[in-house]
């Protein structure tokens, strides 16, 4: 049975409004001016330490300076409750149900820390759809290192796999892991689709069950 692993932010859920609000709360507390949604969205994908470093840099501060650690801690404080503005992308709920109805084990491999990742999935009623969830703090390595993807696959029992993600990081991670990659084009990617390695690109989750079936069939044909 094919296993499907998903990235979270920008792939299953549009969480940028909550991450923007959480970022501006911390910036305000630290005496900095708020940033725009577009700025904060462009910082999402490499986990919280990177995001907070980018918040500092955009505020004219050293992204690796002494303010980084306390600001990461402050950001983490409010992250689990920052769920109210987040929605699944259109068609996600139906696509997950269709894949589960076929008996496919589903997992999430995100650079978001595990606690807020589970909190937002729970808030949206999606946590029970997944047999494994790995966060950016679950292992010493985070994406684009392939280790978290391999660990998620192992937690799902292994087997043929399709990885679904929205960003440069996901494309790099899939390539490093040698896994078939479906690129969701409506997330937080900054690079043109043509410039990112991917097996298939899609903009509508209604296409995903068919894409998974096709990628699984061609992977099977490659192995045979
Ligand atoms: O929290 C982040 O920076 C990114 O999370 P993602 O890996 O689910 O896109
Ligand atoms: Mg993402």
Automatic annotation (TrEMBL):
Top EC group: hydrolase
Reaction equation(s) it catalyzes: 2-phosphoglycolate + H2O = glycolate + phosphate
Pfam families referenced in this protein's UniProt entry, alphabetically: HAD_2
E.C. numbers: 3.1.3.18
Superkingdom field: Bacteria
SUPFAM superfamilies, alphabetized: HAD-like
GO cellular component labels: cytosol
Keyword terms: Carbohydrate metabolism, Hydrolase, Magnesium, Metal-binding
Residue numbers annotated as active site: 7
Cofactor requirement: Mg(2+)
The keyword Metal-binding is annotated on this UniProt entry: yes
Keyword Transcription regulation: no
Function: Specifically catalyzes the dephosphorylation of 2-phosphoglycolate. Is involved in the dissimilation of the intracellular 2-phosphoglycolate formed during the DNA repair of 3'-phosphoglycolate ends, a major class of DNA lesions induced by oxidative stress.
Protein name: Phosphoglycolate phosphatase
Organism: Rhodobacter ferrooxidans
Organism classification: Bacteria, Pseudomonadati, Pseudomonadota, Alphaproteobacteria, Rhodobacterales
């Amino acid at each position: 049975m094919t296993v499907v692993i998903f990235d979270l932010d920008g792939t299953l859920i549009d969480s940028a409004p909550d991450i923007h609000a959480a970022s501006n709360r911390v910036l305000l507390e630290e005496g900095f001016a708020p940033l725009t949604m577009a700025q904060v969205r462009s910082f999402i994908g490499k986990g919280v330490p990177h995001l907070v470093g980018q918040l500092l840099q955009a505020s004219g501060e050293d992204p690796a300076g002494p303010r980084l650690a306390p600001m990461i801690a402050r950001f983490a404080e409010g992250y689990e409750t920052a769920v109210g503005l987040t929605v699944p992308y259109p068609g996600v709920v139906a696509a997950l149900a269709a894949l589960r109805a076929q008996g496919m084990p589903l997992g999430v491999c995100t650079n978001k820390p595990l606690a807020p990742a589970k909190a937002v999935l729970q808030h949206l009623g999606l946590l029970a759809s997944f047999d494994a969830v790995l966060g950016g703090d679950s292992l010493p390595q985070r994406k684009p290192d392939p280790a978290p993807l391999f660990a998620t696959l192992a937690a799902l029992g292994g087997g043929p796999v399709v990885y679904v993600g929205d960003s440069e990081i996901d494309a790099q991670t899939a390539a490093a892991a040698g896994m078939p990659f479906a690129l969701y084009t409506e997330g937080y990617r900054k690079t043109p689709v043509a410039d990112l390695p991917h097996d298939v690109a899609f903009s509508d989750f209604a296409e995903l069950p068919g894409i998974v079936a096709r990628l699984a069939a061609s992977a099977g044909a490659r192995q045979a």
